[in-house]
Amino acid sequence: MLVPKYISWFSDIGLDDRLLVGGKGGNLGELQRAGINVPPGFVVRTEAFEGLIDELERRSPLRARIAPLVAGDLQKIAAVSRELRARIEEAPLPADLKLQIRDAYRRLGGSAPAPAVAVRSSATTEDAADASFAGLQDTYLWVMQADSVIAKIRSCWASLYSLESLSYRLRHGIAESTVAMAVVVQAMVDARTAGVMFTRSPISGDRSVITIEGAWGLGSALVSGEVTPDHWVVAKITGEISVRDISDKAIRHAQAAAGGVEVLAVEESLRREPCLSDQELDSLRTVGRQIERQYGRPQDIEWAVDRHSQQILLLQSRPETVWSNKDLQVAAARVSDPLQHVMKIFGGRR
Amino acid sequence: MNAKLKPREFPLPSSVKVIPGTERAQAAYPYHIQFSRADDRKFWFYNSMHFPEPMSAFDMVTAEAAYCALGAANTRVHCLPTTLGIDHRIINGRVYIGGNGVTDPKEIARRTTEFEKRAFYYYENWESLYANWKQKMLKLIEDAKAMPDPVLPEFEPLEHVHAGRGIASNHDLLVTYQKAIEGYFRMWHHHFEFLLLGYGAYLTFFGFCKQAFPEITDQTIARMVAGIDAEIFRPDDELRRLARRAVELEVDAHFRDGASVDDVLRSLRASGEPGRRWLEELQASREPWFNINVGDGFYHYHRSWNDDMSMPFSALQGYARSVRAGKSLDREIGRLLEERVRLIADYRELLANDEERAAYDQMIALAHRVFPYVEGHKFYCEHWYTNLFFNKIRSFGTLLAAHGFFASAEDVFHLTHYELESAIIDLMNAWSSGSEPRGPAHWPPLVAERKAAIREWARHETPPALGPIPDVIDDPAIVMLWGITRESLDNWLSAGTATDSNEVRGFAASSGVVEGIARIVKSVEEISRLQQGDILVCQVTNPTWTPIFQKIRAAVSDIGGSMSHAAIVAREYGLPAVVGTGNATSKIKDGQRIRVDGGRGIVTLLQ
User: Which of A116, A244, B176, B201 has the most beta carbons within 10 angstroms of its beta carbon?
Assistant: First the structure.
């Protein structure tokens, strides 16, 4: 019997593979294909997850436990969630799967014996290829050693049955048979500076500007709101920086020696210094434009600047949703006599 | 009574007093531009954009002629639907103006019908009408050049007598003077023939961009529309060319620090063939491109480069140094044009849908059609013609001074143009009767009094606006030409309450952040105080100051908006600029260390 292929590298996948590598995995592959600098990594494909669930189903029904639940009955959902997660966490894994993960982890590390990686859930569903499930499943940062990686992959799978995930699917009527989970394993970036970028204005919806926020160290400090980031507004086309708010950044997140994240004080001399140079802002603008073009719509992007190489790396990109779902007023439409446009100025109150 | 009293109001015109001791100087202005009680019902603002310094009595002719022509174009020629012309008043040497809006819907509708018949015809036939306009202006300029300087010979030339001319030389004085005044009023009619229509088409596109891209900067829109080879860029282009030639001919060493224009010319003349060849090149550039004055053309003392070459010469030295350092001074027209095309296409791509793109195409096509006039007219009107006009008046000053009317020819500018005509007629009569003119006893004390009044007026602040605050400002002429909106009035009202702030805010005109020493330049004469690396802080940035931009690190101005060339020039030089701050020259101290953030429009006082 042929050994199933459980692992795909980012360079071999794209958005079309979302059903097998999840939304996050497909996006990262798509970015790398477009020539965007993303930290290297691989995806543990949904086949691995499906195989485990099938094995568990053979022992006793698993998905059928969810069918009778009622959205909103949190107590019952929580009980089922605990039971299913425990079953997944405890199940033995096929030897060839573990072997493939260890092998890929070793290749990802290159010369490093125990590279730090992020292990991220990358859920998918047949019904709604675009459903993001963002934030519903687990992500683990600074994971080191192959055994820990395997344990966290399993935790990601289990998180598909978390209270939040189950509730979400019940509320939206998403059939259990259509959901699956891939897991992204990606090299961590030891970030000098990290942050987010929107390829439109979150305030006015303007598509001609890029809003960039960043802080010293790992992006987790900014995402969790522990530090007020520097804030820039950059014109998408011309690169002019129209807003430049440099904040007092008292703390930063850094990699702890034993794995995980620690909070450090920022050196006094750097607290009020901008965490990005104008040149880096311009590079971010270029990458932002490129990604937006690739996807054909405004994006919400996470990025980091590597402390050692000083290179900008893209960690994640997803479609901007707030403004895209609004009906924006058309500024003006074609008129049969172009001269009628001037009546806006000459014709009275504006 | 008004229950919702606004916290602050502008003073009523009747409450503004003539500064004590200057009453007689104030009385020189004709009755129809003095404030009256009836004016209290109307909103006025100080036109500090065009008249930042107190006006001498003669220079007031610019306000008269300009508003006469502006109003005619708006009210009677193109029939703008929602506005008539602009009234003006002068107090303490300051020009206040107020627009006359049209609010009755029936009247607006009636005027709209007329407007479409007139203005739309102009838009449709813009190129041919503009070509015709240039011909008219060049003819007017030729006529002005052909006017003889006034002279009064002791005896009428014999050839006049033998030719049976039948009029004597004193009559020529009146003819020339009246022609000069007539020509100036005529020039202003030409000036406004296209102006509002041009600005209107530009602002239509501008407004569209602001709606489609709420955070787009004014300067980006200006870059999409601005011409690359407009006349107004030519004087500076000529200087760059002359600097290159000076280096090629190896005569650039003659431009030395501290050397006067005459010193440089003398040493060039003495340097033999290369110097002679360079001076020929200079001569070729001077006509017409040095007919540009160092201000906006609204003051008689804004002399042209031709009249005073110290500005172009000081710039030449810096340019020549750049050439020596291997820098290219060429404005690469092809590249700039390509950039503009790409900019327009890139923004177009960001629009929401094809309907918006179609409207964008229509509007930018119209903006491009009108813009050559918007950019080009100033060179012909405010610079070239205005220089000729003031110089002609100056020649009357010379003649009158020679007959004892004035101590110096420049004193002529302290008479109104009505008074000047009477002084000329006084001299004509005296020449014919053989008596002494009365002027030498009459004018010198008045001139002295008026000079003192101008010094006094300049020492006093004047309110930015007077009278009741309108709820909305929707007069397209006021919004377009002065950039005044309800918002800017609120800013004026709150200015002075935030005295503790160490910030001055204005329009972001050109991005970048620099720190440096502020040099307050309140008038053109002070330009020479600028040291390499200073930050220029002035009342109005003017395109003709372009050559000094190579010396400075940043520019800050009280007045100015997105239409200003200074913003574009600052961008070209990569200098941060903040314009339209309202009060930078009074709030920033000369020599103070400041930070200019041109991307945000903020100036921070650092000491």
Answer: B201
Q: Which two tokens stand for residue B585?
A: 């020259």
Phi and psi torsions of B556, nearest 5°? -135, 135
Termini Cα distance of chain A: 75
- Residue B352 has phi, psi (to 5 degrees) of -70, -40
Q: How far apart are CA B575 and CA B554, in angstroms?
A: 5
Query: Distance between CA B224 and CA B226 in Å, rounded?
Result: 6
By the 8 A CB rule, do A130 and A24 touch? no
**According to the model, what pLDDT value does residue B7 have?**
47
Amino acid at A317: S
Closest chain B residue to the Cα of A240, Cα to Cα: B511
CA–CA separation, B296 and A48 (whole Å): 77
Chain B CB contacts of A335 below 8 Å: 359, 362
Radius of gyration of chain A (CA): 23
| Closest to B75 in 3D by CA, of B102, B97, B51, B96 | B102
Distance of alpha carbon B72 from alpha carbon B196, whole angstroms: 12
Residues of chain B with pLDDT under 70: 1-8, 494-500, 523-525, 541-545, 560-569, 571-572
Residue with structure tokens 């001498």? B56
For chain A, give the percent of residues with pLDDT over 90: 59
Whole-angstrom distance, CA of residue B249 vs CA of residue A255: 65
Return d(Cα A187, Cα A39) in angstroms, integer. Answer: 6
B533's CB contacts (< 8 A; 6+ apart) are B516, B517, B551, B552, B553
pLDDT tens for B469-512 read 887 777 777 777 777 777 777 777 766 544 447 888 877 777 77
Reported as a single tens digit per residue, the pLDDT across A97-122 is 999 999 999 999 888 778 899 999 99
| Identity of residue B607 | Q
How many H-runs (helices) and E-runs (strands) does chain B carry?
20, 12
Q: Could you read off the pLDDT of A267-299 as tens digits, one per residue? A: 999 999 999 999 999 999 999 999 999 888 899
Distance in angstroms (rounded) separating the CA atoms of residues B96 and B86: 10
Render pLDDT for B97-153 as a digit per residue (tens, 0 to 9).
999 989 899 999 999 999 999 999 999 999 999 999 999 999 999 999 999 999 999
Closest by Cα among B305, B234, B245, B307 to B276: B245
Q: Give the gap in angstroms from C-alpha A180 to the nearest C-alpha of chain B.
A: 36
Q: What tokens appear for B369 in the block?
A: 């059609």
Tally: H helices and E strands in chain A: 10, 13
Starting at the edge strand found earlier in the chain, the sheet holding A179-187 runs A7-9, A41-44, A179-187, A117-125, A139-143
Which of A203, A333, A345 lies nearest to residue B204, judging by beta carbons? A345
pLDDT in tens, B145-184: 999 999 999 999 999 999 999 999 999 999 999 999 999 9
End-to-end alpha carbon distance in chain B: 47
Task: In whole angstroms, give the CA distance from residue A254 to residue A175.
Answer: 40
Q: Which residues of A touch B (CB under 8 A)?
A: 201, 203-209, 233, 235-238, 240-244, 328-335, 338-339, 341-350
